[in-house]
What we know:
The protein is mostly beta strands and about 170 residues long. The chain has one helix and eight strands, in the order αββββββββ.
Amino acid sequence: MGFGGRGHLSIGRRVGGVVAVALMAACALTAGSGVAQAIPEYTEPNLVTTLRCDSPNPLPGPPIPVRVDVYNGIPFPADGLAGPAISLIASNRAQPSPLLDYTVETRVDWRNLASGRTGSVTVPSRARVVTWQVDLHPGRGPVVFRIHQKVGLMAFVPMVNARNSTCAGRASA
Length: 173
């Protein structure tokens, strides 16, 4: 028996059901065949230079070698804001801290030489090695920047035995 106590479905309902199923299948086939362009094609950022920005080690031992790659021409920066941007990505190839994480506070002060516009970006990070990324949005033109790193250890609280370092660079946005 069918729904509502009826023993059979009318021919009109059967035809309507078949047409509805065929229509849904056709919609599924045509919807999947198009090409969507939600995100424009990605272009490789331009590596401008690599800065050496070593930091004193909060652990006993030699300074931490920190290299900062400077990129420009980034249409879609990692911070989600509109490009163009200058991206500074720091990394070190040293052995990770054996027991404790590093806590890093990075501040970058910048000035656009063409427009006179200035700004500052501060980024905290925590990892087994010293690493961070800062995206600058200074507008078009030549830009000078100064990087201030504060590197400490995470030992129940952040920034234990913190050490400071500074370096500078320039790029065009």
